[in-house]
Amino acid sequence: MDPQKQFLQKSEEAKDLFLPHLSTDPVVFGFDKSELKVLLLQMTYRKQWLLPGGYVKKDEDLDDAAKRVLKERAGISDVYLEEFAVFGKNKRSEFYFEDFDDSLWHKQRFVSIGYYALYNPDNANLIVDEYSDKCEWIYLSQLPEIDLAMDHREIIEKALLALRERIAYKPIGYNLLPEKFTLSELQKLYETILGKELNRGNFYRKIKNLGILKKLDEQRRGGAHKSPDLYSFDEENYKKALENGLSNW
């Protein structure tokens, strides 16, 4: 079926199920090869790329909607989500749906709640939903070459700024690093998010003082230099830091 006709058919079926003026757009960040990635969908209609977002059901909480949308559109579940901004510029979606009649409810002005999420790409079994041709991790360095629809480039940029601000008062890494990691690998993650180099001695001292790490009786083998110690996150203390913030950072 033609993507446009398919969209119209599904639109009519969904009209009574969703709130017509409210959506959620999760920005899912991953970390790979010392770079940040973001999860995007290439739509069957228009072939543009979008965040894995969707509309909110009439009987649904916002957080539950964001989690449901991620699972349905990308196959991702058990993800930590945090609301960071609201996007509601006039006519933010009008051009995307220009091929449709003005009566299409998707074409009307709607407000989107932005969430950011952190997820290890190695743990993801991505799916492609019926509206998409692709569901892929895209490096942030590749974004200038990507044809992003609506205001989703702005949403990604603001999500990254929110993530950088969050580092000052909440821990980062549990959802992005493997179970066992070195302090240099954790530092590289912080540097990648912040976009700048950090003093190794100061970083190691501060991160150890937070009480969110457990030093393991193991080392990273295989390198030409001294084998560095391996660490894992103390799950209980990490969750407390997420809830209460960091007091010693």
In short:
With 249 residues, the protein is α+β, with helices and mostly antiparallel strands.
Describe this structure in words.
The protein has 249 residues and is α+β, with helices and mostly antiparallel strands. The chain has helices at 3-14, 62-74, 152-166, 183-194, 200-209, 235-244, and strands at 18-32, 35-43, 49-50, 54-57, 80-87, 111-118, 132-139, 213-219, 229-233. The strands form 2 sheets. Strands 1, 2, 3, 4, 5, 6 and 7 form a 7-stranded mixed β-sheet that branches. Strands 8-9 form a two-stranded antiparallel sheet. InterPro entries: NUDIX_hydrolase-like_dom_sf, NUDIX_hydrolase_dom, WH-like_DNA-bd_sf, WH_DNA-bd_sf, WHD_NrtR. It comes from Chryseobacterium edaphi. Residues 19-164 form the Nudix hydrolase domain.
Reconstruct the topology from this structure.
Elements: H1 3-14, E1 18-32, E2 35-43, E3 49-50, E4 54-57, H2 62-74, E5 80-87, E6 111-118, E7 132-139, H3 152-166, H4 183-194, H5 200-209, E8 213-219, E9 229-233, H6 235-244
Parallel strand pairs: 1-6
Antiparallel strand pairs: 1-2, 1-4, 2-3, 2-7, 5-6, 8-9
Domain Nudix hydrolase: 19-164
Pfam families: NUDIX, WHD_NrtR
Protein name: NUDIX domain-containing protein
